Amino acid sequence: MHDTAVETRRERLRRSTTAEIKEIALRLLVEGGPSALTLRAVARQIGMAPNALYGYFASRDDLVVALRDDQYAALAQAARDGRDVAAAQGVDGRLRAWAHAVREWALENPTGWHLIFDGPTGGHRSAPCPTPPDGDFDMCMPLLEFAEATLPHSQLIAASTAYRWSDFDDALTERVRAALPDLPPEGIALGLRIWARLHGLVAFELDGRLRAPSTVAAAIYDDEITYLLRSAAADEMDNPPEDRSEER
Amino acid sequence: MHDTAVETRRERLRRSTTAEIKEIALRLLVEGGPSALTLRAVARQIGMAPNALYGYFASRDDLVVALRDDQYAALAQAARDGRDVAAAQGVDGRLRAWAHAVREWALENPTGWHLIFDGPTGGHRSAPCPTPPDGDFDMCMPLLEFAEATLPHSQLIAASTAYRWSDFDDALTERVRAALPDLPPEGIALGLRIWARLHGLVAFELDGRLRAPSTVAAAIYDDEITYLLRSAAADEMDNPPEDRSEER
């Protein structure tokens, strides 16, 4: 009993120190960019000997990976929350809510977005969504549900295409086939294409390539989603484009 | 006369040394990534004192910018060449050729692509195409010509959208309005969206997010283009999707 209590207290302390290290590291990144994040700078700010820090993170890369995983989890949660808010709206409404949640999270957490997609140690390396740290592909499910619902009567896939399951990441296809047994492999290709469109616009906006005011970037993003939903011509076309006059 | 000849010879020597420095710098980047490119490493490989190198490039950033501008020029040239090959095919054929030329250049020059779009000193920062070093927007003209030709009868723009010229980069709109007087501001928004789709897929493929064999990445890219052309429903629909059976 006594040993367990001591262990628990140590673990709690370790967890709290780890959280503090990550909080400081993220702030250094946000305020100064990749070059500002060094283990030495973290140690100085936390008032810890640099050597003690190695007991928590063996290298700068390990720390960056931990930050990236946290940011991925936050993005995935935001995307799920967006989908859940629109749970009653059918696949179209859920896709729209998901896409807006992704963009809004990115605008609020640009450093997190860069960490996930082009972080100093390289982004995640799988498709159609970024591979989450724990191999859970929940984040991209709204995309794939949309693909499943719209594929049979959609203009979105060219008829000449023949994809196979082996064309895609094994871990992803295994997860997708369990969750969406009616989705053909074309659905993954479609999910990838949709994700590339939305990801591309968010990345342009974050990188300042959409030099226009952010209301215009929002309008362009919304146009893309609206167009996507129209093209899919799903029965669940239950979300007509909003009137954006008050946004302009 | 004599002075001019001497000057010319000096200039020629300087040009040749500059070219050699850039060639070595690009090779260091290709082989070792951003951290391998240092002025010290370039000086060592070229057999020059580090101080002498500063007479050519005042800093590593200056050298990177010079490399990036070269790579941009090469990408723009490849895109133009692609368009020119399909000059007789109408706007659809030209867009398709342009898009394939962009992807092929990226696959052959991944370091160049990263330099242009997410290089160590940041990518170019304008839209809808990356801003070329000399402010010439020729690279994106096939996109905008396509937008101009298809906009009147296209499903690609949601009717509720009202864009203004002031929504976009001044240098770009000035250039576009001179070259394509009939294009409304919606055309720029559409160009951006198309570029985001294509750029997003190429970036996914280069970053290894499309883990599938490259023939599948090619098929997905081609699906997106085919779909784009169909949605645009242009009169010039003169390029039916090729039979890809021999590629698979």
Task: Give the gist of this structure.
Chain A has 248 residues and is mainly alpha-helical. Chain A has ten helices and no strands.
Describe the structure.
The first copy, chain A, is elongated, with a radius of gyration of 21 Å. The first copy, chain A, is mainly alpha-helical and 248 residues long. Residues 119-128 and 234-248 of chain A have low confidence and may be disordered. Chain A has helices spanning 2-32, 39-46, 50-53, 60-85, 90-108, 110-118, 141-150, 170-179, 185-206, 214-232. The longest helix of chain A has 31 residues, at 2-32. In chain A, α5 (90-108) runs parallel beside α9 (185-206) and α5 (90-108) runs antiparallel to α10. Helix content of chain A is 64%, strand content 0%. Chain A folds into 2 domains: 1-58, Arc Repressor Mutant, subunit A, CATH 1.10.10; 67-232, Orthogonal Bundle (Tetracycline Repressor, domain 2). Chains A and B meet through α9 and α10 of A and α9 and α10 of B. Chains A, B: Residues 38-57 bind DNA. Chains A, B: This is AcrR family transcriptional regulator. Chains A, B: Residues 15-75 form the HTH tetR-type domain. Chains A, B: Pfam families: TetR_C_33 (PF13305), TetR_N (PF00440). Chains A, B: GO terms for molecular function: DNA-binding transcription factor activity; transcription cis-regulatory region binding.
